[in-house]
Amino acid sequence: MYAKGIKFSDTHPVVWWIWGSCLSVEALLTNNPLLLLLIAVVVINGASARGESGVFGRSFQLYVKMALWVVVVRVVFQIVFGLRVPGDNLFEFPSVTFHIFASPISIGGFVTSQAIVSAISLGIQLADLVLIFGAINAMSNPYRLLRSLPTTFFEVAMVLTVALSFAPEIAIELESVKEARKLRGLPVRGVRAAKEMALPILEGSLERSLKLSSSMEVRGYGIHREVGSRVRPFFYVALVTLIFSSIAYVVFPGVRLVVSVAAVGAVALLVANLASNKSTNRRSRYRPEKISTRGFLAISSALLSVIVFVVVRRLGGVSISMVTPSTIPLAPLGLAAIAIAALALFITLPSAPSFEGPGGTDD
Amino acid sequence: MIRFSKFSFSYTKAKRPAISVEDLSIQSGEFVLVIGDTGSGKSTFLKSMNGLVPHFSGGDAIGSIDVFGMNPLASRPSDFAKLIGYVDQDPSSQFVTDRVEDEIAFVLENLGYEQSVMRRRVEDSLDLLSISELRGRSLRTLSGGQAQRVAIASVMAVAPKVLLLDEPTSALDPGAADEVMAILQRLVDDLGTTVIIAEHRLERVLPYVDKVVRIGDYGAVEGSSDPRGAVAGLDFSPPVVEFSKVYGNGAIAVSVKEARKMVTDRVDVSTLVRKWDDDRGEHVRPEISTSDRTVATFDHVKIARLGRLVLDEISFEVSKSQIIVLMGRNGSGKSSLLRAAAGLDPVAFGKVRVGGHDPFALESSLRIATVGFVPQDPGILLFGESVAEECRRSDATGKLEAGTTASIFRRLGGDVSHEMHPRDLSEGERLLLAISVVIAPKPSLLLLDEPTRGLDYGAKSRLVAKVKELSDEGIAIVMATHDVEVAASLVDTVIMIGGGSMVSYGPTRDLLTHSPLFAPSMFKVLAPVPVLSVAEALDFLKAHNE
Predict the structure, then answer these.
(1) CATH fold label, B2-234
(2) Which of A100, A346, B21, B216 has the fewest CB atoms within 10 Å, i.e. the most exposed one?
(3) Against a cut of 0.90, is the pTM above it?
(4) pLDDT digits (tens, 9 = 90+) for A146-156
């Protein structure tokens, strides 16, 4: 976008979302810690090599910390509360048995290396998902993704965009209220302090959102809102139906058929709405981003990687059960499949460095 | 053309109208200044022109407004997007996107401009405000002056006929403020834009404007095509106006240039300057920096923020009763210095000591008795539901005798009902209440960050008097401000900060009269005679006028 095509080029945000989704599918399909670790390595590399600078780029560190925590907590839980997996005993954890409603619940006991391996695998699996989400955010600023959604989604996208800027805003508000309390010599911890701080924070953020909405209004936001008014209600009904039916599909397995029918109907309605709105929507878009050839190649590599991975899984190459650290299978085909997704990082170019100016937010 | 007739607006449940306009018209291409005390309804007046009042504020409007053939009472604010650009007091609070270029394109996208037109309009706006080098920047990284210019560019993209600006220079240093004013002047001259701005610091704006709209008591709005006449009738006005009222035999000067001409027509300033030296001799400040009077020391302090060095090699001492004014451009690190002194942030290197303690290491109760800090928005320090509760809590946290804070507030001139909610106080009163709660535990050092922002001349001169009183009582004061006139009227010590380090430290008179950017207007009028205030200038001229 800046120095055209020579050294830098921003990759379309959709590319990284597809790439990330493919990797998370792979992470969900295996429990082999080696494969899961490779996924983590690829993702961390991706975030550091193709991440943007700026607020969202910097936040990746937080996700890495969170991922490490997830693994540690998962292993500790396994040791203390986990099911007793039979196998090679490593050590014994002091065990206690409670009798709640006459049914014995025991904590602790023998910890086997099989149990540890499986806990670590599950931990890394969860950590991978956290890392992937963080990496996508670091590699494609969410504002840019929202900008590349179809115009029909504009209003929803706008609300999400504002919400995204709202979260850091609340953090800033909280920080300043805490400081103000320090300056007054008032406590910043404890229930009472939290109660007293909640109001000013809420007040401040509410004030800010009102200001933002008036600022959007005076710059013509929603000026064409009458145009699509006949199709709008259907659009929202379809969107809500889709969201609820996908939740119901998971939560209530008994009604899956009904829910699937509803979901298909909702999707049809959305598509019809998109098509009919194309002619009526008068909003335009500044510099719409297009997916470059490199972007398409990157998407292809991610999709190919998933296909290969699924095939390998069918052949029984990526799953493990009851193994000790020394018997973890290498799964070379699985590793190769993940390596295909890593190709995307070589195909794309790094994004242009954003110009972080000389401070200036000080006064 | 904009025309108000028999228009009045009241907020819901208000007893009297917030603003009422009998008859007022603003011609196309005029540069209009809206003046009035803090809280007099300047913002309400501006917002009534594009329908933000009453559509976003609630309340009732009667009468009629005609804005280039449109009626703001009947249309929504978004219908005015192409006709009126509106920029709020705090530009960064109105940013919708996260990048400069996208922010400017936002209005164009909403109005459905073609791709090619859009590209051109964004380019034009960037050029118009001379910010094309900022295009790819994240909005969060802009300095105050840059943010203000981006906000103006983001409404100028559709080339509106009218531009409404609410206090566009209040957060800016004198240099950045001059740049913004020059740009507005260009919009009026080159594009025929009608520019309407509300502003407190009249000395910056007056020389440019064609018309003054004054909002008086009870929101009565009156227009006047004679800026001189309008400002001559004010109780408090900018230094050059005050000066010319006495010196000009009925003529009113609105700019330094005019006031200067008034003087040079009568006397030869370059010969007078010798008389100043004869009168005063060498201007010496009594040396009081002996160790038992030292309240705070900065010893080779470096301050870093987000891993970047913002201030380097800061060394100075603050003694009892001293008033130090910190000056420097936006983003020069004044606030960082105050925050370090208040113990909010640690220093990267060196030592900060207040009353012998490291403020960052102090426990909260000991800290409030050592150093007091009033941040830019004093309201943030106030948590109570009423003034009385605020004072009671201050007494409790400081373990003071009941009524201490209330009596300090009264002494500082807080003459309000103690049942009032702090939010309903005027800006000036709120500032005094914040200062009262901060100084109640008797800190030896008081830090003020931009205390005059948003204050009218009356409130400002009262604040200056209070600060001097506090200093007489022995409190040392360090104040960061962009307001040159306030710095000049405190006549003590000035520290200039620039490029991340202390550029100079010295008596106010020496420093301010040697800085082109921070020179007070009376010095500009009488240069090279180093006068700081109107009273000084008048006394001096009277003594040597034949």
Answers:
(1) Rossmann fold (3.40.50)
(2) A100
(3) no
(4) 777 766 666 67
